[in-house]
Structures are given as C-alpha cells and as structure tokens.
Design goal:
CATH topology: Rossmann fold
Strand order of the largest sheet: 3-2-1-4-5-10-8-9
Structural class: alpha/beta
Strand content: 15-25%
CATH architecture: 3-Layer(aba) Sandwich
CATH class: Alpha Beta
CATH superfamily: Vaccinia Virus protein VP39
Number of strands: 10
Length: 243
Amino acid sequence: MAIDRRVLWRGLGGSRYFEYSWLLRHIGSLRPGLRVLDVGAGPSVLPALLAHRGYTSVASDTDAGELAPQRTFRNRPGVGGRLHALVHDGARLAVRDRSCDVVICRSVLEHISVPGDAATVAELARCVARGGLLLITVPFAPRYREATPPYQSGGHQRLYDLSALEERIIAASGLAPIDRAFIGWPHRAVFRLMLRADRYRVVRLMHRWFSLVAPSAIFGVVGRDATDRAGGALLALRNDALD
C-alpha cells in the first residue's frame, strides 16, 4: 500500500504510516469538497493533508493546546481556508446530526474508560451523513483486555479482540461494516516492542525506514483474517440509512 511521503517525516510512529494510508484510501474514494471530521486529532498532520486535497477538514480535540499545530497548518499553501480546529469532547460533539461525510477516530477509543468507548462510537455515528463513512483504528489483541485501577492517565484502557470490535464498535455504531483490516508483524510481541520503543529518536528513524522498505507481508496492513499477528485493527463503517 503506497504511503504518502508528506506524512512520513512528521515524527509519527511506524503503525501510523499504515493507518494514514488506509484512511486516505477510503477517503479518496469520495469526491473532494466533502466534510471530514477528525475526532481526537490533536497535532496530527492528517487534517491539513485532507484540506490540501480539497476536503473541508475539521480537527477536534478536548485539549486546545493539542490543536495548536493546526493553526500553523492552516497557513500552509494549498490549504485555502479549508482547515478548522474545534475544541470538542468526542462523547458530546457540538455537531449536527448527519452533517459529516467522513468521521475519523484514530487511536482514540482505547484511551476512554469503560463503558465510554461504546457511547462515544454511538455519538460519532450520529454525525455521519447518509452514505458517509466512520473510520476507526484501535489496538488489537487475541483476547480482550482492560486496564485495572489505578488507571494510567492517557494510557490504553483496553485492547480489542474480534468480539469487542463487533460488540463495542460495530454494534454500538448501528452502521454497516464495509472493510476490516489489521496492522502487524509476523510476531505480535515484536510489534508491541517496536511501538513502545518508538519514543526514542533512533528507533523512530529505523521504524520509518523499515516502514518504507518492508513488504506488507512482513509489516503493514496484513488483511482482514490475519488476526494471529495483528497489533492494530482498522474498521470502515458506512451509514446506509434510507431515511
């Protein structure tokens, strides 16, 4: 899967490259000019990249400080006033029903305490226009796991398995699943180790290089049935409502 090189050197972790490529593939199937809401976007470059491609791009986060880079991105050539930053709680979005053609929730749900993740999914789905997409990425494990108190602030509250993807995300959304894929290495333990070590600059540089040259059979989007070596799950859901 091709990786957009404008994304590569922004300090992102290795798995982010494949999340972005997968997201861009789905969004690219829709015509430019549509409205894309990225919930929990923080300093991500993805909203600016979408604005540069002609979409009306809204980056939202609960922390105004995390959105500060979006103000810088807004001034980049080619963005053309299509990038907006809003301070929103993902569980209570100040967005009209069915007003967004695409809603993105990338590596956010796992940080929300139980049962807030399913409630947040329902809130995200409320904003998706008829025929629109809800694109979600979460960490994946063979068995569902939850953190135990005391919870680490900002840390993972859970890892999703297949049943949790179905019950806590797909069923909670009420939308139709149209795509499911996974990110991983041949050995999940190596994947987890690399993500933990990605805080170190030298490992991050190695991870970026490997992300560029490694075939997807070794590291990347490994397909909907490769759960035995997956460390992340990607879900595309569509609003097929007739009313």
